[in-house]
Amino acid sequence: MIDAYGDPGIPDTRGGWRYLWWLALRQPGRSLAGAVFGSAWLVLMAAQPYLLSRAVDDGLVPGRLGVLAAWTGAMFAAGVGCAWLSIMRHRTMTRVRMDANFRTVKLVVEHAARLGAALPRRVGAGEVVTVGVGDVQTLAQALTVMGPGVGSVVVYSVVAAQLLTISGPVAAVVLLGVPVIALLTGPLTRRLQGTETEYRERQGILTARIGDLAGGLRVLGGLGGKSLFADAFARDSGRLREQGYRVGAVTSWVQALGLGLPTLFLAAVTWLAARLAAQGAITVGELVSVYGYAAVLIGPVAFFVEMNYDLNRAVVAARRVVALLRLEPEPDDGTLTAPGHPAELHDPASGVRVAPGRLTALVAARSADTTAVVDRLGRYGPTDALWGGVRLDAVPLAEVRERVLVADNEADLFAGPLLETVSAGRLADEAAVRRAVRAAVAEDVVRGLPDGLDTVVSGQGRSLSGGQRQRVRLARALLADPEVLLAVEPTSALDAHTESAVAHRLREAREGRTTLVTSTSPLLLDVADTVLFLVDGKVAASGPHRLLLDREKGYRALVARDLGDGEVSR
Amino acid sequence: MTTDTGALPVADRRTVRRAAARLVRADGRAFAAALALNALAAGAGIVGPWLVGRIVDEVRAGRGAAAVDRLALWILLCALAQLVLARWARYVAHRFGERTLARVRETFVERLLGLPASVVERAGTGDLTARGTADVATVGTTLRDIGPELLVYAVQALFVLGAVFALSPWLGLFGLLGLTPVWLAVRWYLRRARDAYLAEGAATSAVAEIVAATAAGARTVEAFRLRKARTAASREALEVSRRSRYRTLGLRTVFFPSVEISYTIPVAGVLLVGGWLHGRGLIGLGAVVAGALYMRQFTDPLDMVLMRLEQLQSSGASFARVEGIAEAPRAPVDPARNPADDRIEVRGVRYAYERGGEVLRGVDLTVRPGERLAVVGASGAGKTTLSRLLAGIDAPASGSVTVGGVPVAELEPARLRRQVVLVTQEHHVFLGSVRDNLLIAEPGATDEELWRALVAVGADGWVRELPEGLDTGLGQGGRVTDGSQAQQLALARVVLADPHTLILDEATALLDPATARHTERGLAAVLAGRTVIAIAHRLHTAHDADRVAVMEDGLVTELGTHDELVAADGAYAALWRTWHGDGGTV
C-alpha cells in the first residue's frame, strides 16, 4: 500500500545512483515482486511460439485433432497466464513508481519548507519547480528497470536456450542480430527527437503568440489593429507548416526504418530457418517457432536499450534532487536570551528605532531602502540589529520568528480555503478571523466569494484582484498577532477610500503592540505615532507626519507627489 | 448554450463531426493518397506470413532449397517494399496533418480576433488562452502524430483480417467472432477513462504546484512558520493523487487483461477450426499456419489502435472546445454609423453581472467636451463598470451610453479609437517588434509618426538604444520591457489613436514612486487637449479636476466642482478632510 502520509525516511544523498538505489531499497518486496512478475511474464510470452510449433508439429501436421486441441488449450492457458502476469507486473511497477515519486515529493517539500528564507538565496525557485514537475516523474519512471528491465535479461537467456536446442547457426544469428537491430533503431528514434526540437520550439512560439493574443485582446478591442495580428499570425503559421514538411521528410524515414529494419531482419531469419527446414535440419514446427522467437525478442531487447537511456536521464534528475536535499539551513547558533518583554528594535546601519507599543512608519523614495531596513530588523540575511540591546542574530532564530513577523508586500498566498490562508496554518476561531478580516477592510472580499471564508482561493490568490490580495495578506498578518509586526507597503494597491479605512483599523488592531509600516501614502503616515524619513538609507528626519510635512522639504516633495502634482496636472 | 453564464460555448458532437469532415474534404486528395499508400504498405506487410505458409507447404512437399530460396527472397523484397511504401505513406499523412493543423490554428485566431470585447471579458483570458494553447496543441498532436499512426495501424489491421478471410472465409469469421470481447472491453474502458485520467492529471499538477509554491514562497513559509502546514498540504495533495492513480490503475486492471486474453481467442479458434477443416481436406496446411500467424500479427496493430483511442477521445474534446468559439456571439458592430460630435451622454444606465446584484442602478451623466471629470467612490461603487461602459467594452443592460448620438459599444474598433480610449495600468506588450506594438493603434502610421508618439511619452530614449530600434522584438525571446516602459508603449498607442476622450483608470497604483515619475510626463502629454474622465483612486486627481462625480452603491450621488462638493459637506468632503489633513500644505 502506498502511503501519502507516511514518513519518507532519511535519503541517501551521497550521489545520484545512490539515491536511485535508495528509492529501490525502500521497497524491497515490491521491487523483487516486480522483477519476478516481469521475468515470468516475458518468459511465458516467449513460450507461445513453442506451444504454437508443438500444435503444428504434433497436432496439425499428423492430423490428430485431440492433440491439436490440447496444445491449443495450453496456448490459451498460457495466454491467460500471460495476461495475469502482465497486469500483476504493471500493478506492482505502478506502485513502485508511485512510491518513488511520493517519497521524493515529500522529501523535497519538507526540505524546502525547512530551508525557508534561505532557499531563494541558494537556488532559483525554477530549479525546485523542475524537480517537482519533471524530475520526480523521470526518477520514478527509471525504477521500471527493476521489473521489465530484469525481465528482458531473463527472457533473452531463456529464448537463447530454446534456440540453441533447435539450431546453432539460427541461434547465433537471432541472439546477435536482435541486439544489433535494437542498437540501430534506438539512436534513430532519439535522432527523431532531435530533429523535432526546432519544430517544437517554433511551435512553442506560435502557441505563445495565441496566448499573447488572448491576453491582449482587450487592448485590440479598444484600438483595432486586429488584421495586423491576423496577417502576422498567418505568416508565422505558414512558416511553421513549411518547417513541419521538412521535419516530416526526415521523421517519416526514421519511423519507417524503426519498424522496417526488424521486419527485414525477421525476413532474413525466416530465410535461414526455411533453408534448414528444406534440408531437413529442423522441423516445420521449429521453423514456425524460430519466426515467433525472433519476433518475441525484438520488444524486450529494444526496451532494454531504451531503459539505459532512461536510467541515464534519471541519474541526472536524481543528482538535482540530491543537490537540493544537501542544502543546509543557515546556521542558527544564537544562545543569548531575548528581552523578556516588548523592547525596542534598533537598526544601527540606518539609525531606525522601532519603539515598543507604538506605530512607526518608514518613508523612503526608493522602496529598496525600506525593504533593506525591514530585512535587517526581521533578521532575513545578515544583520547587526539590536533587540532591547541584544544582538538579533545572537538570539535563537525560532524565538525571533515567533515574536517578530515581517509581512511582505508580495508575500505568497498558498492555494486553499480562504479561512486556511488567513489563519496561516494555526487553529483560529472564526470570530478572531472575522475580526482580522474586518481590521484589514477585507469584508467585501469575503462577501464577494461564493462560499465566503470556505471558498478555495487559487495559488498566489490569482482569482483575486491586486487590492483584494493585499488585504488578505494584511488580515493574515493581523490575525497572527505578533509582538512586533513589520509590514511592507501594506496599502499600496488600495484606493483612497479603502486605504483610509485600513489605516484607521490597522491602528486600532495594533493598539499597544509594536508595529512598523513602510509607505509613502499620507493616509497611512497620518495615523502613525512617529514617521521616520530615510534619505540614502539613513534616517534624515523623524516626527509626526504633519510636522514633517511642514518642516521637511524632501519629505513634502515625496509624499505630496501623491497629494499635489498628480496625473491630472495642468 | 452556456453563454449567459459568461463561459465560452463548446461545440456539440454533430458540429465537431461536421467540422472534422470539412477539414478532411478541404484536403481530400492528400487524405486519399495517404490512405492508398498505407493500404499498399499494409498489403506488402501481409504477404510475409502467407509466404511462410507457402514455404511450409513446399518443405512438406520436399521441394528442396531452390524453391524455398525463391519464396524467401520474396519475403525479403516484400519487407523492403513495405518499408519504402510506409515511408511515403507517413510522409503524405504528415503533410496532410501539418496543413490541417495550420488551418485549425489560423481559423482559431481569426475567430478569436472577431470576438467582441464583452465576450472576452466575461469568458476570462484563462479559458481563451487554454483553448488557444493547450487545446490547439492537443488537436495538433492528434493531427501530426496520432492521426497518421491510427491510419497506418487501422489499415494494417483491416488488411490482416482481410487476408485471413481470403485464406478461408470460415477462418476469418471465427477470427472476427473471437474479437467481440475486445470490443466490449474497449467500450467499457473508454466510458470511464477520460474523466479518470483528467482527474489524475489534475492531481499531479496540484502536487507540482505545491512543490513550486513552497519553494517560491519559502520566505513566507518561514515568516509565518508554515512548515507543518506546507507538509500537511503536500500530504493531502499526495493522498488525492494516490486515489486518482489507483482509480486509473483499477480501470487498467480490468481493461488490459480482458484485451490480452481476448487476443489469444482468435489464434486458438483459427488453429482448431483450421485443424478440423484441414482434417477434412478442405484447406491446406499452409493456409492454417498462415492464418494462425496472421491472427498473432493482427494483435500488434490492434493494440496500437486501442492505445491511441483514448488520446483520440481526449483530443476530440479539445477540438470541441476549439470549434466552440465559432458559436460565441458576435459583436453588434455597425460600420455605417458615425458619431455626430464629441459629446458623451450616459442615460438611465443599469448594469448587472451574472453573479451578484446590480452594479449600476440608473446612472445619468453628461460629459462636457474638453473637461476633466474625476469619478470617485469606494471599491464596489461601480466606478470601474462605468468606465467599461464608457469605453464601449460592454453595453448597458438598459439605458444608453452614446458618443455623438451613437451607442459606444456598437462602434467598430477603428472608429472607436478616434472617439474614446480606455487607459489602464494593465498594459499588454504584444510579442512582436516595437513597431508592431504601436501600429495596432494606427496601422497606416509612418515611422516619423511613430517616433513623434514615442517622443511625446518620453520613450524615444530607450527605444533608440535598442539594437534594432523600432524593429527590436519584445517579450519572450526578445527584449523584456519593465513596467514603466510597457506603460509608455501603451501611452504611445493612445497618442497614435488620437481619441478626443480618454478614460483613465488608476486601478492599481504604481508600487514604486520612482517608476511613477517616469511615466508621469508621458501621461501629461497624452492628456493634453482631450476630454478626460478619470476613475480616481487618489484624491489629488479629484482635487485637480474640473468636476467630480461621487459614486455610491451604483448611483452618482454628488456631482460638481471640488470646491462645491467640499462646501456641500457630503461624503466627498468627509473623505477629503481625512486625506488632506486639516490645514496641511498642498
TrEMBL record, chain A:
Chain ranges of the ABC transporter domain: 325-561
InterPro entries found in the cross-reference section: ABC1_TM_dom (IPR011527), ABC1_TM_sf (IPR036640), ABC_transporter-like_ATP-bd (IPR003439), ABC_transporter-like_CS (IPR017871), P-loop_NTPase (IPR027417), Type_1_exporter (IPR039421)
Record's subcellular location: Cell membrane
Bilayer-crossing regions: 32-53, 65-87, 153-182, 253-274, 281-305
Every ABC transmembrane type-1 domain range: 32-313
GO CC entries: plasma membrane
Main localization, broad class: membrane
Membrane topology designation: Multi-pass membrane protein
Keywords: ATP-binding, Membrane, Nucleotide-binding, Transmembrane, Transmembrane helix
Entry protein name: ABC transporter ATP-binding protein
From TrEMBL, chain B:
Signal peptide start and end residues: none
InterPro entries per record: AAA+_ATPase, ABC1_TM_dom, ABC1_TM_sf, ABC_transporter-like_ATP-bd, P-loop_NTPase, Type_1_exporter
PANTHER family assigned: ATP-BINDING CASSETTE SUB-FAMILY B MEMBER 10, MITOCHONDRIAL, ATP-DEPENDENT PERMEASE MDL1, MITOCHONDRIAL
Top-level division of the source organism's lineage: Bacteria
Cellular component terms per the entry's GO annotation: plasma membrane
Membrane topology annotation: Multi-pass membrane protein
Domain ABC transporter, first and last residues per copy: 344-578
Protein name in UniProt: ABC transporter ATP-binding protein
One protein family per Pfam: ABC_membrane
Subcellular location: Cell membrane
PROSITE patterns given in the database record: ABC_TM1F (PS50929), ABC_TRANSPORTER_2 (PS50893)
